[in-house]
Amino acid sequence: MAGNGERVTPAEETAFFTASMQVAATLVGLLFVAVSLRPETVMADKKQRAVAQGAFIALVNGFFLSMGGALPGGELGWTAIVVGSLSFLNTLALARDLRPVDFAKVSFLRSALLLLASAGIYGSEIVNGILIERAGSGSSAVASILNTLFSIYAIGILRSWQLLGAPTASVLHGLLTAVDAPREDAGSPSAWVKDQSEAGERSGPN
Question: What does the alpha-carbon distance between residue 191 and residue 134 come to, in Å, rounded to a whole number?
Answer without folding.
Answer: 64
